[in-house]
Design brief:
Elements: H1 2-15, H2 21-25, H3 29-49, H4 52-55, E1 59-66, H5 71-74, E2 78-80, H6 82-92, E3 96-109, E4 112-124, E5 130-144, E6 147-155, H7 158-172
Parallel strand pairs: 1-6
Antiparallel strand pairs: 1-2, 3-4, 4-5, 5-6
Length: about 170
C-alpha cells in the first residue's frame, strides 16, 4: 500500500502535460537570459557611473530598490517606484565622489543579472570630510520586459566604517 501512495504522485505528474499553460506563456530560460544581459549591463554600468539620465529609462515604473545591509550604517536605503528610486539616487548618492567596481564575476540567469566585486568608493559627509574605502559588493537585478523591476544591493560596510573611524580620529588630533 505504501508503494502505491508513493508512486501515485509520480503517476499523476507523468499524466500532466509537459508544460503547464502558464509556463508556455513565459519566455524560456535562454530567451530571458539573452534579454536580461544587455539591460542588466547597461543599467549596472550607469549605476556605478552615477549616470542617472542613462539609468532612468531602464527602470520599470513599479521598480524597487533595497540595500538591507545599509540599515545599521545609513538607517537603510530603499525606494518603491521609479520616481522614488530616482530621488534616492540623485539626492541620496549626491555625496558619493567616486564609485568604481573591481569586478570578480557577473552572470545572467533567466530574469536576473548578478554583479559581484569590490566597490572602491568615496563619500563626502555633511561636515565636508571625505571617507574612502574598498568593500565587497553584490548587486542583483531582476529584468522583465526590457526594464529593471528590482535592484538589490548587498555590501560589507565594515571597511567603510573603519575608514570613517580612522578619519574622525585623525581629524580630532
Amino acid at each position: 500500500m505504501k508503494i502505491f501512495f508513493r508512486a501515485l504522485p509520480l503517476a499523476i505528474a507523468l499524466a500532466l502535460p509537459a508544460a503547464p499553460l502558464a509556463a508556455q506563456e513565459r519566455p524560456s530560460f535562454d530567451d530571458a537570459g539573452a534579454a536580461t544581459q544587455p539591460v542588466g549591463h547597461a543599467y549596472f554600468d550607469a549605476y556605478i557611473a552615477r549616470d542617472w539620465d542613462a539609468l532612468e529609462p531602464l527602470l520599470a515604473d513599479d521598480a524597487s530598490f533595497h540595500d538591507a545591509t545599509a540599515e545599521l550604517v545609513f538607517g537603510g536605503a530603499e525606494a518603491e517606484g521609479k520616481a522614488a528610486m530616482m530621488t534616492l539616487f540623485r539626492d541620496g548618492y549626491e555625496g558619493i565622489t567616486r564609485m568604481t567596481l573591481r569586478p570578480m564575476r557577473n552572470f545572467h540567469s533567466g530574469h536576473y543579472s548578478v554583479f559581484e566585486g569590490e566597490l572602491d568608493w568615496a563619500l563626502r559627509l555633511d561636515d565636508g570630510m571625505e571617507v574612502a574605502s574598498v568593500m565587497p559588493f553584490v548587486t542583483i537585478l531582476r529584468v522583465e520586459d526590457g526594464r529593471v523591476v528590482s535592484h538589490r544591493d548587498f555590501a560589507d560596510y565594515a571597511p567603510f566604517l573603519a575608514a570613517l573611524r580612522a578619519a574622525r580620529a585623525a581629524a580630532a588630533e
